[in-house]
Amino acid sequence: MTLKQTLNEAIKEAMKSRQTARLATLRFLSAAIKQKEVDERVELNDQQIQQIIEKQIKQRKESIAAFEQAGREESAASERAEIEVLSEFMPEQVSQDELNAAIDAVVNELKAQGLSGGQAMGKAMGVLKAQFAGRADMALVSKWLKEKLS
């Protein structure tokens, strides 16, 4: 079953069980997917849909930070609930140990090639992004990578 079919089934289930908050989040996601399909005149595959979900999650994380800074904890809690719903459609996240091992391997390989600084960072992020797209927060990966390279 494709990710889009899974999403449609989840929408139907949320309608039947009268989960209004969940239904609103799922419909918003479905609308974002349909908008992208209409704009580009293509049928999106699972990977492209996951990229849309990643973007939605990132937007909500930014909103949470803004709400918390403004002291609006109720709004932040609502955004966290939406992240939980969206996360259901993402692949299982990579473990911290696996990510650290991959970062170490890439850093060692680049140092063996004699690369350092910005060149190494760019190459390493390219390798890690291809390996962990959708399974890891790339902002955290970048932060940890910078620490290892320095």
Largest sheet features: none
CATH topology of the largest domain: Hypothetical Protein Yqey, Chain: A, domain1
Oligomer: single chain
Fraction in beta strands:
under 5%
Shape type? globular
Count of helical stretches:
7
Number of domains: 2
**Strand segment tally:** 0
**Mean pLDDT across residues:** 89
CATH domain class of the largest domain: Mainly Alpha
* Assigned CATH superfamily of the largest domain: Uncharacterised protein YqeY/AIM41, N-terminal domain
- The secondary-structure class comes to mainly alpha
Helix content: over 70%
Q: Give the end-to-end Cα distance, rounded to a whole number of Å.
A: 44 Å
Query: Do you know the CATH architecture of the largest domain?
Result: Orthogonal Bundle
How much is the radius of gyration in Å?
18 Å
Pfam family, one: YqeY
Protein name: Glutamyl-tRNA amidotransferase
GO molecular function, one term: transferase activity
Keywords: Transferase
